[in-house]
Specification:
Length: 231
Amino acid sequence: MLKLQGIESGYGESAVLRGVSMVVDPAKVVCLIGRNGVGKTTLMRTLTGQLKIRQGRMSLGEQEVTGWDSVKRARGGIGYVPQGREIFPQLTVKENLLLGLEPCVPRSKVFPEDVLALFPVLPQMYHRQGGDLSGGQQQQLAFARALASRPKVLLLDEPTEGIQPSIVEEIQDVIRGIKAKGETSVILVEQSIEFVRSVADYIYVMDKGTVVAEGVQDAIDMEQFEHYLTV
Ligand SMILES: Nc1ncnc2c1ncn2[C@@H]1O[C@H](COP(=O)(O)OP(=O)(O)OP(=O)(O)O)[C@@H](O)[C@H]1O
């Protein structure tokens, strides 16, 4: 279980997160929604350790990880697919995948077959350059790379951004597949209410750097949540 208590962080003088508290249970899909600029990506970067926690506490299972840097957090079980995916365009699909093994403890050089099985399209493309893949294929590559080290929590920042609607369903299936394996919780930042509706177990709504609403998803809740997304 990932637990955040009163997290504050930001950039230089500017405070962005103002006391975020959240719980993510094992093997659940938790969606984070809110208007542009409310701090969702900042929260992702704070969870990975790219940004320091200035106040508050973060724990993963029984382990307090508040002071851990990004390398330690990755080894400890935080996987990340950033907005824009950050595939290395000049490296092959296989090389991109193997980079995902970096955080493995103990070290491994073999990509796990059961993780690859979630992405049947990838083995056919091993020798193509990452930059030659479509947006949807790159997204699958980024997911697979982040899952290589079997993270306890996978952070996905707007995975459907710039993806054709026909491919969005494939991404939903992958998220369901991750959940079904039961090893990894997912925290998903997402703008599309439809997408959230299709995968979320639990929803947190952010506004102005803090959580303003939360709950299990059902039709009535979603109407309330949509209010926070309309400008
Ligand atoms: N590198 C940075 N340096 C300084 N301020 C930043 C930086 N990145 C983001 N911010 C500011 O932090 C605030 C929160 O931004 P953040 O990207 O976390 O929001 P968001 O909810 O993810 O929005 P979006 O949906 O547009 O990605 C904004 O006011 C933004 O201008």
